Amino acid sequence: MNNFTTAVTNRRTNYTLSKDVSLPQTTIIKTVEDMVREVPSAFNMQSGKVVVAFGETHDAIWKITMDTLRKIVPPANFAATEAKINFFAAAYGTVLYFDDTAIVDKMAAQFPLYAKNFPIWAQQANGMMQFAIWTALTDLGLGVNVQHYNPLIDDDVKKLTGVPDSWQLIAQMPFGAPTEAPKPIVKVPIEERVRVKF
Q1: How far apart are CA 68 and CA 61, in angstroms?
Q2: pTM
Q3: Which one of 25, 50, 53, 175 has the largest count of C-beta atoms within 10 Å of its C-beta?
């Protein structure tokens, strides 16, 4: 296998993470920047945005999530929720993914024939960006997972990070030092997913 295929194969969901990361933060930031710059988007609209959160900001994201869910989840069921959020809080950092809806709306207005497709295309590009960053961080030796607590935490997270109102929160990606191997996953036979016609 080539290096790219190996990197993709090694990418897995890892929930058991710690802050014991020896990589320089500059390496992580540069890796994220490189992926954001290079991932394609329809009409080159580049609506995908990220915030890389370390330290107090990372901790605050998961405190917001915990406090928000505490108001919603019945107390009798909250122990499992609390344990799950504590897993994410234990990580070294979080990548927050956003779409700038102002860019998407502008493109839709500029190309009315395709207007309904631009939000879909923006989501597709954001997914590619998440996958690229996830794979690249795994390739650095980090453990990674992706969460979706939006829209429950949107307003507080946007206030915390100071992003523009037009940025819509899409996903949260905790990352850190893996403390155990990811759980194996079941793959359906590839013949059920890929067809070849000549």
Answers
A1: 11
A2: 0.96
A3: 175
Q: Give Cα 147 to chain centroid, integer Å.
A: 7
Full DSSP string of 142-183: -EE--B--TTTTHHHHHHHHT--TTEEEEEEEEEEEESSPPP
Task: Give the model confidence (pLDDT) of 118-152 as tens digits.
Answer: 999 999 999 999 999 999 999 999 999 999 999 99
Q: Is the pLDDT of residue 164 over 90?
A: yes
Burial pattern 79-111, b for ≥16 Cβ within 10 A else e, equals eebeeebebbbbbbbbbbbbbbbebbeebbeee
**CATH superfamily of domain region 3-192:** NADH Oxidase (3.40.109.10)
In angstroms, what is the C-alpha Rg of the chain?
18
For residues 143 and 16, the answer to whether their CB atoms sit within 8 Å is yes
Segment 38-63 shows an average pLDDT of: 98
Instruction: Please state the domain extents for the chain.
Output: 3-192
